[in-house]
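Re-run with default settings, no changes from the original entry. Doing this only to confirm the output is reproducible before filing.
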Amino acid sequence: MEFMLVLCEDPDLVATEEQHKEAVERVGEYAMGLLGEGVLKGGAPLHPVTEAKREAAVAIASRCPNAEFGSVEVREIVPMG
């Protein structure tokens, strides 16, 4: 069985650039630990929700049955490499 974790930032909790830098470093260490354990299969950061775009992905997501009784979040993946 596989799972996906979607990590979200609360701007009120990482208010300064130093706090943000420290948070990013800690999450990186966490991810590297999971990678070392062999449980992390992949990952990529997402663009902030404030940069969400209305595009083909929104139309695709709107067809998902979960949209009828829950939610479907559309966020662009930050290109890696």
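Residues 17-37 form the longest helix (21 residues). Residues 9-43 form one domain.
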